[in-house]
Amino acid sequence: MHNNDITIVGAGSAGLTLALLLAPTGLKITVLEQGDAPTQQQVTHQRVSALNLASKRVLEHVGAWPAIAATATAYHQMQVWDADSFGRIEFNAGQERLSQLGWICDNEQIRVALYQQLQQHANVELLFNCTINSIAQSERDVVININQQQLLLSRLVVGADGVNSLVRREMQLPLAHWDYEHQAIVATIGTQLPHQATARQVFLPTGPLALLPLPDPQQCSIVWSCNPERAAELLAMDEMAFNQALTAASNSVLGVLARQTVPQAFALKMRYASNWVRGRAVLVADAAHSIHPLAGQGMNLGLMDVAALAELISEAVADNQDFSETRLLRRYERWRKAEAQTLIAAMETFKRGFSNKQPLLKLVRAVGMSGVDQMPWLKSKIIAAALGNSGDLPKLAQPMLKTQHSA
C-alpha cells in the first residue's frame, strides 16, 4: 500500500501545472500518466495553444515560463473578419498599452517545461506508463489500483486526464455533450508574406480558419474548423489542391500558402460534466469541460481551473484545515463552473451566428463586428476578457493583487 495526500491523474499541461502549484504546500503528491514522460525534442508546432496573459502569470509563478517562451511566438495583433460580409475587427497590443496580446505555444513544449520544473520537488512523484485498473473511495480515502494490483491510497484524487477522463467515468460523474458537427484540421504551413506577429481568423460559411504565427516569420499553424463534408474534401485533396483551397479561404491575406506538414483532423465536441465533485474526487480542465477552439481559450480555461483549485487547497493547508473536504471542493466547482458555462455559451453563440447564411443575419453580424471595431471602450472590454485581465480569476492569474476570493 502506497500512501500520499493527493493523486493527480493525467500529466498533461493541467495536471503538471497543478502538481507544481501544490508542491510548495509540502503535501505528498503523485501524478499518474498512462503515456510516456515528456522528452525534449525538436519543436514541431503540430499541436499548439494560444496562451493569454493570465496563463503566462501562472506559468511564470511555477518557473516554467522562460522555457516555454523560448519556443513560443508572441503576437501583437489580432485580425478577425467574416468572409461572407464586410464585417471585420482588429485588436492591437499598442492600443491596449501592452507588449503582446498572447503567445502561440507548442503543446508538448509546455509539458516539457513543466516536467523539468517538477524534478526540483522531492514531494512530487511522477509515474508514467501507468495503468489504472480501478478507483474506489470511502469516507476518508480514495484507493487507486494501478499496475498489476499495486494500491495507492490518497486523501484526494484529481481528474486531469482529458476529455475521455477515466476518473470521471469511475466516479460516475454525468456528462452532457453535443457534437459541434465540426472537425478541426491542423497543419503547419508556409506563407508567401510574413505574418507580422499577427493572429488571424476568418469566419467561412463552413467554419472558422485560424492562421497562428510561428517563430519563422513566414510560417503559421492553421486550425481549420469545418463541417465533416468539407473536412473530408480537404483531406482527400493532393498537396497542390489543398494549398489552393487554403489560399482562397484565407483571401490570400498572406499570399500563396503551402502546407509543410500532412494535415490531421480532430472531431470537435462540447463536453461538460454536470457534477465536478464526488466525495474526495474532483475534475479539472478537459476532464470537466471542452469547448470549440474558435477563440483559442481551451488551454487557458483549464489552467485557470487548476490555479483556482490550488489556491483553495493551499489556503486550507496553511490554515490547518482539511483540503479534501466536500465544502472546499464545492467552492471550487461553483467558482469554475460559472466561468466554463459562460465560455461554452459564448462559443456556441459564435458558431451558430457565423454559420447562419440568412442575408439579414449576415448583415447584422457584419454591422455588429464593424461597429465594435469603432468603439474603443467595448473593444477594450472584449480584449481584456480574452487576455485574462478581467473576470473572477485566481490570485496568481490576476494582473494585480486583489481581495481574497470569497466563498
Structure description:
Belongs to the UbiH/COQ6 family. Pathway: Cofactor biosynthesis; ubiquinone biosynthesis. Keywords: FAD, Flavoprotein, Monooxygenase, Oxidoreductase. This is FAD-dependent 2-octaprenylphenol hydroxylase. It is built from eleven helices and 20 strands. It has helices spanning 13-22, 53-61, 65-69, 107-118, 166-170, 228-236, 239-249, 298-318, 326-355, 359-373, 376-387, and strands at residues 2-9, 29-32, 48-51, 73-75, 77-82, 88-92, 102-106, 124-127, 132-137, 142-146, 150-159, 175-191, 198-204, 207-213, 219-226, 257-259, 264-273, 277-278, 281-283, 289-290. α1 packs parallel to α4 (107-118), α1 runs parallel beside α8 and α8 (298-318) packs antiparallel against α9. The protein is globular. α1 links the parallel β1 and β2 (29-32).
